[in-house]
Design brief:
Multicopper oxidase family protein; signal; disordered N terminus; binds CU-O-CU linkage; Immunoglobulin-like; about 475 residues; 6-stranded mixed β-sheet; binds copper (II) ion
Length: about 475
């Protein structure tokens, strides 16, 4: 792949030309960043918000003048931004208009196991699935994507993914909240295109570690440009890529504030110049602009397959993500809130149960995914410590249906950017991460949740296990095999 160093985007010149991505060579004019439409159905007479999600094939122009076969939700590529509030009853009417089976998983959303959309909730071609639950968690930027065992990477690559924003009274009013204006989702995905402009699917399988595309799209836009009209903008960053880890910041090195991790606000804004995102992770940041600013959101760094994945930038994988042009006059920013969330951290009680997960090349504790096997049985309402030890190249670890706090990384207290509620965490090579997890009340001895590496190739190869959450005291009544699965 052609690598390039970033250019300081000092003027408009940097936006129109020259500031291209490592890609197929042609330097096309920038396109306005696509903002996924927001979907927030009104409450019906029963007080339920009924979402309708149609998964369908389509055609999308990524490279100028060329079309690619893609998949999308309610459109040809990607999906709407779903939005609901704590306390809402939601119904998701998912209609699979794709020619093969898939699932739709609500990543970062606290849901009962049967509504989770993991590999067991298969929706056949032209089938329908209608889970329903009550939103009950702090404000968060969650997302959704398919999860069919062995095919997740491909289904996301083709375009099924979107954001799922959860509002809750805990979010301070001072945060920017005008969707698409000063509150903007940024879905970051690397892709490789063939010369005819189509998505190169064979490229997904060329590297045993995982796929790194030649081009980075944001919200499905190739060479995107965002014009902002506000002096402070909230970006909700999502790494929906297969295996690339991004170190997101700006070409001019400006500092900004991290306000939220995967599933919740930090205690207070944290000033940073880069945020690290491994696949599946999210971050919310507040960025200040001056009138007339021209700057590019980029990623500096190296990829963890070659290194300890410690996030140190060495210029080996520098990528432009999004050019930004601020208007000549900007809506003024309010004051920066000094406090965000009262207490985002989960404390394990003394004597909390510790479970250990050893990450191998494509296995966890020496096992690969077996849809019929229950790997862990957890008592409902408990808080446990999960210790994740990586004896292989870089991986991350995602747990369904919960939020967790990072207790330590290699024995040291977590850095500031990991001090918020998380559902996915990067585990450096030869490193150990310990997290505190509280398991919700929802119990079902035969409907498992998943834990897995979110590097999609690893996940598809079976780097995944299953746990059930059951009433305390009934753990030994859980069957070791799920009924009906060979
Ligand atoms: Cu983002 Cu098991 O998923
Ligand atoms: Cu992995």
């Amino acid at each position: 792949m052609k690598r390039r160093r970033f250019l300081a985007a000092a003027g408009l010149a940097g936006l129109g030309t020259g500031c291209g991505q490592a890609s197929s060579g042609v330097s096309a004019p920038r396109k306005p960043l696509w903002i996924p439409p927001m979907l927030r159905p009104r409450r019906d007479v029963d007080g339920v918000r009924r979402f309708q999600l149609n998964l369908r094939p389509g055609r999308t122009e990524f490279l100028p003048g060329k079309r690619a076969a893609t998949w999308g939700v309610n459109g040809p590529h990607l999906g709407p931004t779903l939005r609901a509030s704590r306390g809402d009853r939601v119904e998701m009417r998912v209609i699979n208009g794709l020619p093969e089976s898939t699932t739709l998983h609500w990543h970062g959303v606290r849901v009962p196991a049967e509504a989770d959309g993991g590999p067991h909730q298969i929706i056949g071609p032209y089938g329908m699935w209608v889970p329903e639950w009550t939103i009950d968690q702090p404000a968060a930027s969650a997302w959704y994507h398919p999860h069919p065992h062995g095919r997740t990477e491909l289904h996301i690559y083709r375009g099924i993914a979107g954001m799922f924003l959860i509002d809750a009274p805990d979010a301070p009013d001072a945060l920017p909240r005008a969707y698409g204006v000063d509150d903007i989702p940024l879905i970051i995905q690397d892709r490789t295109f063939r010369a005819d402009g189509s998505l190169d699917e064979a490229a997904l399988y060329q590297d045993r570690f995982g796929f790194e595309g030649q081009t980075v799209l944001v919200n499905g836009t190739y060479r995107p440009l965002l014009r902002v009209g506000a002096a402070r903008v909230r970006f909700r960053l999502l790494n929906a890529s297969s295996a690339r880890v991004y170190q997101v910041g700006f070409t001019d090195g400006r500092r900004f504030h991290l306000i939220a991790t995967d599933v919740g606000l930090l205690a207070a804004p944290l000033e940073v110049d880069r945020v690290q995102l491994s696949p599946g992770e999210r971050a919310e940041v507040l960025v200040d602009f001056a009138a007339g600013d021209r700057v590019t959101l980029n990623s500096l760094g190296e990829q963890p397959k070659n290194t300890a994945g410690d996030g140190k930038a060495d210029g080996k994988d520098d990528l432009d993500l999004l050019a930004i042009a601020a208007a000549g006059r900007l809506t003024r920013a309010g004051r920066m809130p000094s406090r965000l969330s009262a207490d985002p951290m989960i404390e394990p009680p003394p004597g909390a149960r510790v479970r250990t997960f050893v990450l191998g090349h494509h296995d966890i504790n020496g096992k690969i995914m077996d849809m019929g096997r229950i790997d862990e049985v957890v008592p409902a309402g408990s808080t446990e410590i999960w210790e994740i030890r990586n004896e292989s190249f870089a991986h991350n670890f995602h747990i369904h249906g919960v939020a967790f706090s990072v207790l330590d990384v290699n024995g040291a207290p977590p850095p500031g950017h990991l001090r918020g509620l998380k559902d996915t965490v990067l585990v450096p090579r030869a490193g150990t991460v310990r997290v505190a997890v509280t398991f919700s009340e929802w119990s079902d001895p035969v409907r498992p949740y998943m834990f897995h590496c979110h590097f999609l190739r690893h996940e598809d190869l079976g780097m995944m296990g299953q746990f059930v959450v059951v009433e305390a005291g009934t753990e030994d009544r859980v069957p070791t095999r799920l009924p009906g699965i060979p």
